[in-house]
Write a structure and sequence with these properties.
three-stranded antiparallel beta sheet; 23 strands; alpha+beta
Length: 415
């Protein structure tokens, strides 16, 4: 593993930040009809030091957080001065102690070579989403009827971790067989092949999921990438070059494209094709009309795609400022901390890293407050650093809701 990779990458990022140019998907500085694209910084070969070759599970959360935030800087979604806040936010969402315990006790396997490829993938390519190389890093090994501290610990080919159990550890429950009664709660069909559907007698049973253009009764009848529209399973999302708005507006185009349709006939627009949104400098009109990580300079008239607003720059509402900022009073401002306004009129329920939007403030005023440590009082799991809030006796012998460690933090995971 080469931990110096990210320091090298940040140095290169800062060097490029001095000019107004951006990079397109080929990794070289070029211009095209759509204007510059907020795409790759490095060519396909990767950074000069070839990046990571292996990653230890103990380093995974930290390095993944750095990779995500460096990509945000590369794509102009984040100012390099906000790297620390970005990494803190990402690390709070990745429970390193739980993952390390799970892997060390054999309840999950971790592919450290594929993890290295995942981190390297953040240095190039798309500015949003999870790189394809980041899939299948972890594999659950726990069979049905055995204990699980994390949802991912159960062997997904055999079952799932009971989400409603209050004991530690919870238990892996097996997938139901075809035609068995189901509820989608504690009795679930194998999502690889079946869904919970009504049979001819009106009972919910496991049946093979429907594929595209098959008839359906419920949204859950169709394969995961499909949607039940007018009793037919249709594609939910389409990508560049694929058909869009074929039936009742579906499929929608993905975030990097828009649906190009012909003129309306008798008030109805025909199906279209997903085309790539304009990049930096391209013509645009309104919210979300540019490639992700860019904003349109105008919401009422034709404008140009430009980088997200930096600290102190003018802005036009939610989604027009860089990460770790929000549009407050027409200018990009730091996300609020203690007592800051996180209502829809403020930061839209988002607070600075390490803080939460407190929905229990008196008078309906939502304010930011710091995340609580284990042993401190709480009302919701989201109040706690551990994301666990439970009713128990307090230090002063009084009972109430307090932040607790999750089951997966026990020395042996509670097993």
């Amino acid at each position: 593993m080469k931990a110096t990779f990210f320091f090298f990458a940040l140095t290169v990022l800062l060097a490029f930040a001095c000019g107004p140019r951006a990079l397109e998907d080929g990794g070289v500085l070029v211009d095209d009809d759509a204007g510059f694209d907020a795409g790759r910084l490095f060519p396909d070969a990767g950074p000069l030091d070839a990046g990571f070759t292996t990653v230890a599970i103990a380093d995974w959360c930290r390095l993944q957080s750095e990779a995500q935030c460096l990509r945000a800087v590369r794509c102009t979604r984040l100012d390099s001065a906000a790297m620390k806040a970005c990494v803190l936010r990402a690390e709070l969402e990745c429970d390193s102690a739980s993952l390390v315990s799970s892997v060390e006790h054999g309840r999950q396997t971790f592919d450290n070579v594929r993890a290295a490829a995942c981190l390297n993938a953040y240095a190039s390519g798309a500015c949003q989403g999870v790189p394809e190389r980041c899939t299948d890093l972890f594999h659950g090994t726990v069979a049905p009827d055995a204990g699980c501290a994390l949802d991912e610990e159960c062997d997904k080919a055999q079952g799932f971790c009971d989400p409603y159990s209050t004991q530690c550890p919870r238990r892996c429950l097996g997938w139901l067989k075809p035609s068995e009664p189901c509820s989608d709660f504690r009795t679930r069909c194998n999502p690889a092949t079946d869904t919970c559907q009504l049979n001819d007698a009106g009972a919910s049973v496991c049946r093979p999921y429907k594929i595209a253009l098959e008839t359906c009764l419920s949204f859950s009848d169709c394969r995961a990438d499909l949607l039940c529209v007018n009793a037919v399973c249709v594609t939910y999302r389409a990508s560049e070059g694929q058909a869009c708005s074929v039936m009742n507006g579906y499929p929608y185009c993905d975030d990097a494209t828009f649906c190009r349709q012909g003129p309306a006939v008798n008030g109805v627009f025909p199906p279209g094709t997903c085309e790539r949104k304009p990049g930096l400098g391209g013509a645009c009109l309104g919210y979300s009309s540019c490639l992700p990580a860019l904003r349109c300079s105008s919401v009422l008239a034709t404008g140009v795609c430009q980088p997200l607003g930096k600290l102190g720059e003018t802005c036009g509402g939610t989604g027009t400022c860089q990460d770790e900022l929000y549009c407050g009073s027409g200018r990009c401002a730091p996300l609020p901390t203690d007592g800051g306004d996180c209502t829809a009129q403020g930061s839209s329920y988002t607070c600075a890293a390490g803080y939460t939007c407190d929905f229990s403030a008196p008078g309906g005023h939502y304010g930011c407050s710091r995340l609580r440590a284990v042993g401190e009082s709480c009302r919701y799991a989201s109040d706690c650093l551990s994301n666990e809030c439970a009713y128990q006796a307090g230090a002063d012998s009084g009972a109430g809701y307090f932040c607790t460690l999750p089951c997966s933090h026990s020395a042996d995971g509670g097993f």
